[in-house]
Specification:
With 380 residues, the protein is α+β, with helices and mostly antiparallel strands. It has 2 domains: 116 residues, Peptidoglycan synthesis regulatory factor (PBP3), Domain 2 (Sandwich), CATH 2.60.410.10; 219 residues, Beta-lactamase. Helices cover 26% and strands 30% of the residues. The chain contains 8 helices and 18 strands. A 7-stranded mixed β-sheet has the order 1-15-17-18-13-12-16, with no helix packed on it. Strands 3-2-10-9-8 form a 5-stranded antiparallel β-sheet, with helices on both faces. Strand 12 and strand 13 form a beta hairpin. Helix 3 packs across helix 4 and helix 4 packs across helix 5. The longest helix has 18 residues. The protein is elongated, with a radius of gyration of 27 Å.
């Protein structure tokens, strides 16, 4: 008696989530790369995104993340001070130039890590929060895994080369997104272009801050083995793109690639609001219910990211067994909204019942059955 119904709603609707293979043609000189639209979490492009790689100073994002957590929880304040050990003072590489025996304000350490990429500042934070850099690295790894960074292992707080200190660009993108979402009150430090400490002024090495594409973060990285990498992010008209890559061969290539990735993502893709939470998509016929039809609704907002040139080729349909059999309860998942187009992966979104529908009594059910036999009517 019941048939499978497929209702075409519109041919101009657009696709909810695309993968790297659907993106407009793009190639990168980076060894590993991923580009993501942050609002919809859509991967616009990926290349070796799950390949283990050395994060170098991009590691410092995790050190800062744990520091931000302590600040947000209230266990620390920006005016608290941490002592500088000889271990921190002696650390090589990029430095904030802390002095042994001195105490440094937390806010200065944040800027020393983010803007100046100070390895010494990372050790000061690690020793203050965990007693040793080794213990802090274990905390970093546990927290990374809890954030979904399943392929990440940290062995130190700064990204100093270690054969076991590894991550992926996909994991670094997760960390970037969580930093932005979890700490809006502290995120502004990532957009600062210079910081002076102990009379020494240093500039932020992040090229996306100077590229004129809306860049406001996040962190560079470089070692001889890893090459030049970057977690870059930019905002335009309330839309944010995150691009993470590693393995370029120079600072110049890193700067060029960051600007090219961000510009490409904004140019080739658009975000489009499709449905609002609770909006009725279609009214479905009901069998043996005290209502003839029932609304099928979207349980949450649907915003899509698609290639701009593909917008006109997308279709939207609703699939469900028609008619729906009573009783039905509000919130029951009974249908699927299907968004599809040629040469892209279709996306299915559950639709739920928008109102309770009770089953007819015996007399009503007999009457409905009789109408079906005589007239072919399927509604209650």
């Amino acid at each position: 008696m019941k048939t499978f119904g497929r209702i075409i709603l519109a041919s101009f609707m657009v696709f909810l989530a695309v993968g790297g293979r659907q993106a407009a043609a793009f190639e990168t000189v980076a060894r590993e790369a991923i580009i993501i639209d942050m609002e919809t979490d859509t991967v616009l492009y990926e290349h070796n995104a799950d390949q283990l790689t050395m994060p170098s100073s991009m590691t410092k994002m995790m050190t800062v993340y744990l520091l931000f957590e302590r600040l947000k929880e209230g266990g620390l304040s920006l005016d608290d001070t941490f002592p500088v050990s000889e271990n921190a003072w002696r650390k090589g590489g990029s430095k904030m130039f802390v002095e042994v025996g001195k105490r440094i304000r937390v806010e200065d350490l944040i800027r020393g890590i983010i803007v100046q990429s100070g390895n010494d500042a990372c050790i000061v934070v690690a020793e203050a929060l965990a007693g040793s850099e080794e213990a802090f690295a274990e905390q970093m790894t546990r927290r990374a895994h809890s954030l979904g960074m399943k392929d990440t292992t940290f062995k130190n707080a700064s990204g100093w080369p270690d054969p076991e200190h590894m991550t992926t660009v996909r994991d670094l993108a997760i960390l970037g997104k969580r930093t932005i979402r979890d700490f809006p009150e502290f995120y502004h430090y990532y957009s600062e272009t210079e910081f002076t400490f102990s009379g020494i002024k240093q500039s932020n090495r992040n090229p996306i801050l100077y590229a004129g594409v809306g860049g406001d973060g996040l962190k560079t990285g470089h070692t001889e083995d890893a090459g030049y990498g970057l977690v870059a992010t930019a905002m335009r008209n309330d839309r944010r793109i995150i691009a993470v890559f590693n393995g370029t061969d120079s600072m110049k290539a890193r700067a060029q690639e960051s600007e090219r990735m961000i510009s490409w993502a904004f140019r080739e893709f658009g975000n489009y609001a499709l449905f609002k939470s609770g909006e009725t998509v279609v009214d479905a016929d009901v069998w043996l219910g005290d209502k003839v039809t029932v609304p099928l609704v979207i349980p949450k907002d649907v915003t899509i990211t698609i290639p701009r040139k593909s917008r006109q080729t997308m279709t939207v349909s609703v699939k469900y067994d028609s008619p729906l059999s009573a009783p039905l309860r509000k919130g029951d998942s009974v249908a699927k909204l299907v968004i599809a187009a040629p040469n892209v992966d279709s996306r299915e979104i559950p639709l739920t019942v928008g109102a309770d529908v009770n089953q007819l009594g015996l007399v009503g059910r007999l009457g409905a059955a009789l109408r079906y036999i005589l007239l072919g009517a399927t509604s209650g």
